[in-house]
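Researcher: I'd like a structural prediction for the single chain below. Treat it as a standalone chain; there are no partners to consider.
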Amino acid sequence: MMMEQPGVLDGAIAPVHNSALFGHEAQEDFLARAYRSGKLHHALLIEGPQGVGKATLAFRFAQHVLSHPDPQAAPETMAAPDPESPIARQLASGASHNLLHITRPVDEKTGKVKTAITIEEIRRVGHFFSQTSGTGNWRIVIIDPADDMNRNAANAVLKVLEEPPKRSLFLVLSHAPGKLLPTIRSRCLPLKLSALQPDDLLKAIGHLGLAVHGDQKPVLVDLAKGSVSQALKLINYGGADIIAAFREVLSSDASTARRKMHKLADALSGKDGDVVFQFFLDHLTEYLMQMAKDAAMTGNLVSADRLSHLTSDLTQRLVIAGAYNLDRKQTILDVLVDVRAC
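Model: Treating it as a single chain, here is the predicted structure.
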């Protein structure tokens, strides 16, 4: 299946189009009740692991608010959105004057999604609020995710959060809220979403039309760790094969390891391989940090410290290689050599 829009994984449904949300009923009920009470905070920090439904919940709640502009007349529960309703159709087409979705923009020169949300994107918020709403309805800004803002963009958002316009609502999404400016976090009401339970994860995958056979389910659930996006990378991007190849590199003897390292590096450095490369980087980081944790738990603090520093060094090298368009394959080979030696 082709991407519906830039930045959406193959096989996924863009959050604005997604009519189904799994595993977050308590958070939906909280939002509906808080809105109906008339005491909803003007800025919500919707936080949780990547791929668990934060953006889908944000668009779902935005449609709820815009469909019921008077909080006191709003229902106590949030119904599944009707994709044929006028508001849903406006949101889906990007034609709504009451909602602004801030995310990483596409570079017009390369056609690829940029690496950060810049201050130019945040300036759109000021223009958005300066326009007169044709309906007098709420104005909603979704920042998706706030983790991608650079420093200037974060400071610009902070100024808006400090003096929010009337009938405005900010839905700030974050995979790692600890990395946000403390001043941004302090001005938002946190709403935490957890990784999906196995049954909810499998329901979400089924909603996407992906078939997972019985014997594959335990492995998928274990590797996906409650994330739909992680599951998609495992199924549609060869992530499971990448993990298996990485394990073979680590377990092979010196006579065969080099050949397997080259094979893995070829797979990770292929054309348009940004998604699977980032998948590997995340998996590598998790693997090394778990090794460091295990070493610390057994009292081997020297090894734990060495592994922790190795994690930072290797991930930085991979990020720099990507940023400066260095030879990705050679960088991956160098990293694999260092990991095998640890």
